[in-house]
Amino acid sequence: QVQLVESGGGLVQAGGSLRLSCAASGRTFSNYAMGWFRQVPGKEREFVATISWRGRTTYYADPVKGRFTISRDNAKNTVYLQMNSLKPEDTAVYYCAAPREGYGLGSREASEYAYWGQGTQVTVSS
Predict the structure, then answer these.
(1) Under a CB-based contact definition with an 8 Å cutoff, are residues 113 and 35 in contact?
(2) 3-state secondary structure (DSSP) of residue 62
C-alpha cells in the first residue's frame, strides 16, 4: 500500500522560506513521477509542481515559477518542495501526490494522481 507523509509546513513571514518533504513508502519510489498540489478552503485543489520519475523534467504552476523548486532523493524515497520568497497568497494546505502508473513525466492534473498525503499547512503572514 502506497503511503505519503508530508512534513515541513508552518508559519512564516512574507519573503521567507520553507522546505516541504514528502516521504513515500509501499512501492519502488524511483519508478514514479511525483507532484505537489495545494488547496485553500472553498477552492479546488491547485497544481504547484511535478517532477518526472528520473528527476530530469519538472513543471511549475505560473504563480510559483522562479520561487519554488521541486526535487527528489530516490535513495531516501523523498520528494521536496523548496519554497522561497513566500507570499501571503501561498497560504494553503500542501499535498504531495503520486500516480498509479510509473515512468511518467508528471502531470498538472489532480485526476492523474491516485495517492495523496494527508497535507501540511503553510501559512504566510504579511
Answers:
(1) yes
(2) helix
Q: Cβ distance 91 to 41 under 8 Å? A: no
Cβ-Cβ contacts under 8 Å for 6 (sequence gap 6 or more): 20, 21, 22, 94, 95, 96, 117, 118, 119, 120
Q: What angle do CA 81, 2, 108 make, to 5 degrees?
A: 45
**Per-residue pLDDT for the chain (126 aa), expressed as one digit of tens each?**
999 999 999 999 999 999 999 999 999 998 999 999 999 999 999 999 999 999 999 999 999 999 999 999 999 999 999 999 999 999 999 999 999 998 889 999 999 999 999 999 999 999
Range 46-76 burial, b when 16+ CB lie within 10 A, else e: ebbbbbbbebeebbbbeebeeebbbebeeee
In the numeric block, the cell 513525466 is attached to 105
70 contacts 19 by C-beta, under 8 angstroms: no
CB 20 within 8 A of CB 81: yes
